[in-house]
Amino acid sequence: MKEIKRFLMIGAHPDDADIRFGGTALQLARAGHVVKFVSFCNGNCGHYEMAGAQLAVRRFQETQASREVSGISEYQVFTENNDCELTPSLENRKKMIRLIREFQPDVVLTHRLCDYHADHRATAQLVLDAAYLTQVPMYCADVPIPPENPVYAHVYDDFTEPRPLRYDAMIPIDGVIDDKCRMLDCHVSQVYEWLAWELGEKFDHTTWSWAKKREFLLKNWGQRFIDAANTGRERLVQIYGEAGKSVRYAEAFELSPYGKRITADEFQALMMP
Questions:
Q1: Mean pLDDT lowest among 26-35, 54-63, 191-200
Q2: What 3 state SS string does the chain have?
Q3: How crowded is residue 135: how many other Cβ atoms within 10 Å of its Cβ?
């Protein structure tokens, strides 16, 4: 009987999990594994003209639409945590510990500490702070410790200081790139409005066909996973042989030394559907 694995992707905002882990999550969920996305902030500042409770509600609804498209088990948003204000406080540490204990994941994924966004860095710090403390039974004793410490890992970014991401595991997503675009398409307030505005673009996307949306999404979001495949090509070939040479889009992951200790090859096997 196939072993069912449990994956917990903890991002700072209500689209981070889709962008960084969406293609792998689609494949894992379709293979029968349990995947949960978390946004540790409510998204209430991610726009150029809408904000506050109205935007937070809109972004929560976008997460639930993405969940329906992707087939993951749950997309949880910590609605009480405002954007741009997240700190690695004791209160938030306890929230993180309880979240991980209750879900009992095999793998916990999050940002790296060198990320550009303060909320991303705070989320990463909270996850890493929780990595050992989830196994301390007298801390947050209302939720029992899980039977096994999970593996902790980081999702792809292209930052090079203090060092580039290490390509410990790589998952080709060519076969699900259209479905990943469908997930991103659910986050209308972000991909067609806020993040486009950050790039200097403003347009009426409501009249666009799916073909035009797909073209836009691949242009603006697909490139980072082309870059991941190209910069991680040696690891792709090491894992997949000749087939690794033709992978166009890939999601890459770095194994953390916190949590359960496994090798890079064991981590690769764990991340595969």
A1: 191-200
A2: CCCCCEEEEEECCCCHHHHHHHHHHHHHHHCCCEEEEEECCCCCCCCCCCCHHHHHHHHHHHHHHHHHHHCCCEEEECCCCCCCCCCCCHHHHHHHHHHHHHHCCCEEEECCCCCCCHHHHHHHHHHHHHHHHCCCCCCCCCCCCCCCCCEEEEECCCCCCCCCCCCCEEEECHHHHHHHHHHHHHCHHHHHHHHHHHCCCCCCHHHCCHHHHHHHHHHHHHHHHHHHHHHCHHHHHHHHHHHHHHCCCEEEEEEEEEECCCCHHHHHHHHCC
A3: 15
Tell which residue, 84, 56, 66, has the closest CA to residue 186: 66
Burial class (CB in 10 A: 0-12, 13-18, 19+), 76: middle
- In the chain, what is the greatest distance between 2 CA atoms, to the nearest angstrom? 56
Structure-token pair, residue 253: 């992951």
Q: What pLDDT is attached to residue 199?
A: 83
Residue 195 banded pLDDT, cuts 50, 70, 90: confident
What's the confidence (pLDDT) of residue 200? 85
Cβ neighbours around 100 below 10 Å, total: 26
Check whether 112 has a pLDDT greater than 80: yes
pLDDT per residue as tens digits for the range 115-143: 999 999 999 999 999 999 999 999 999 99
